[in-house]
Amino acid sequence: MQTVSDVIVLNFMKTIHIKRIYDQPAKDDGYRVLVDRIWPRGISKKDAHLDDWLKEIAPSTPLRKWFDHEPEKFEAFSNKYKIELENKSEILTTLRNKVKSRTLTLLYGAKDTEHNQAVVLKEVLENL
Q1: What is the pTM of this model?
Q2: What's one Pfam family the UniProt record gives for this protein (predicted)?
């Protein structure tokens, strides 16, 4: 059950975007954070225009390697990643607090725009 303060907070929430790090930065990106464990190939840190790189929020190396960006594994990957995120409450809260004052853009390097960790992380953040 939502309280009045919950409704007030929800009304002041900004947007969460997901975007490939290779896409051009935009004015409306707000706080840009890379959520990959490994730095994406072919882009310099300067050209990334990041506010933060949160390797710790990315899927674990074993989970990332198991998933291997295979769309048929995405549902299982999503469930396993959400379990990993249960142990990252401090980082999730920090990200969620960013959204209270500005737009948050979660950046990732994968080619697949529908089956990646940023999609899952956005869902988790929106449901906190």
Answers
A1: 0.87
A2: DUF488-N3i
Strand order in the sheet with 31-34: 16-20, 104-108, 31-34, 52-53
Whether the Cβ atoms of residue 49 and residue 25 lie closer than 8 Å to each other: yes
The distance from CA 5 to its chain's CA centroid, rounded to whole angstroms, is 26
Is residue 113 within 8 A of residue 20, CB to CB? The reply is: yes
Q: What are phi and psi of 102, to 5 degrees?
A: -160, 165
CA trace torsion 39, 86, 95, 70 (10° rounding): 40
Residues 33, 53: contact at Cβ < 8 Å? yes
**pLDDT tens per residue across span 71-112:** 999 999 999 999 999 999 999 999 999 888 899 999 999 999
* 3-class SS of residue 90: helix
**CA-to-CA distance for 99 and 121, rounded, in angstroms?**
13
Tokens of 47: 């050209």
For CA atoms 20, 23, 27, 33, give the dihedral sign: positive
Name residue, tokens 């840009």: 32
